Model the fold of this input.
Amino acid sequence: MQQISGAKLFVNALKEEGVDKIFAYPGAVVADLFDEIGKQDDIELILPRHEQGLIHAADGYARSTGRVGVCLVTSGPGATNIVTGLANANYDSVPLVCFTGQVPTGLIGNDAFQEVDIIGITRNICKYGVTVRNREDLGRIIKEAFYIARTGKPGPVIIDLPKDVQVALGPKEYPEKVSIRGYKPPTDVHVGQLKRGFKLLKSAKRPLFLVGGGLNISQANNSFLKLVETMKIPVITTIMGRGAIPSNHPYFVGNAGMHGAYASNMALMGCDVLFSIGTRFNDRITGDLNEFAPGAKIVHIDIDTSAISRNVCVDIPIVADAGLAIEKLLEWAIPMDTGEWMNTIYSWKEERPLEMRKDKGVCPQLILEKINELFPKYIAVTDVGQHQMWCTQYLEINSDRQMLTSGGLGVMGFGLPAAIGAQFGNPEATVICVSGDGGAQMNIQEMSTAVCHGLPVIFCIFNNSYLGMVRQMQQLFYGKRYVGTCLRRRKGVCPDQCKGPGKDCPEYSPDFVRLAESYGALGLRVTDPKDIESALKEAAANRKGPTLIEFIIDTDEIVLPMVKGGNPISNMIFSPKGN
Done:
């Protein structure tokens, strides 16, 4: 029987799994793996500038393509630097297979150089993790890893590869099938439970669909749109569910929750049947659990058994893939008389429309509306903060437009590397990253990756000189005591107690335009609303590399409406004064 090294089997396995790109950073204990990757041309090795940027790039690749993102890092700090990205992918159900190097098996547990128990560290933030102890198990474990990552509720898997396993000889065969005792993801729908849920929905006077990211992951958008249009039921979404149906559709009400639209939150409070699909009912959606959907019977479809009735007790639980359940519901769907209910929802929309003041300079709403106008197709990737919420409010998402964002973990620094990953996965697409000035600096080094690969990512920075989301909380709830949120603050220059910006504030550091230029990217700055369109057009025309556009926005811009954490979602703040 022909034998090959573990490193060679590793590369062959990736090819068998259809991997075309691997996001990887080298180190001593993975040198053999890199050497084998370098001997072939089918898999492109992408070298980001930091391991956290690396895993976010793999994440963006996976979210935007629906394929498994693949990472490779060295042991010790290389492994620990991907922990945040693993947790992020785990929260948002992103399929990743991450390989970490490890010291030889004989040294494990001896505090060897760059040794960490990465499997132990990540046990609670991965779908599965394992250290390969024997060369004979390597092929089976890799096969299982890809299967686990992409099936059921997708998620990240981590495989720890000791140095001696990589160089050891063993069988060249790679398994064709997977059989894992105890892991049987749902492949059908409990028709009886689904019929109960449908019967309850059909009896409703004020029905409402609440849709989360699970529907987008199952790629059931077209089927769901048919269901909505047939049954004439309004739809609200979580942030991750944005795009479940086109955001300009007459039955789409808006996002719900802490920064949800008034009409969405009121619909949640007023519905009599809440039919939820692919959401885990986190606290940003529910607010005070005692007052969540108080008059509603709740149906919950989710592929993850543990997510059902964990946060909100539901009346009819249904464990199923969203797509399979919706296809079955379509067989029974009938038109419902929701005219009066829709009129009530429209009246709420008219009473409290989503709108920002547009007379305060470069307004975020104006920027995002101009993106909608100029780009009929795009992949929008957000970082985390105020700009993220504005994107969920004002970007018009449909079948030609996709929005990627860090939902469950809320990772600042996600935006730029994830956008780079999305551009790798969709080379002809227009990829637009929207970030704040705080999050932009957390992984700004990945601008070099974009430049070196000639990626035409449009990197929009909303610069308000603050960590805006926390500053907003300080403005509304902490007496305008802006502690640790001003990014212009300089020791010995600024007063101990600062109530906001003034004419004597220090210059902002860094100069984002000059920083972009130092990387070899195009840098633009917009300080006047009339220049928004020309800057975006100039960026769109630059397909040879990335463009950074710094939009100088007003420091006092805040995301409204807002619900204070722990309050009922009906207790919404509509004014910067907190009322």
Q: What stands out?
A: The chain has a mean pLDDT of 95. The chain is about 35% helix and 15% strand. The first strand starts at residue 3 and ends at 5. Residues 51-65 form the longest helix (15 residues).
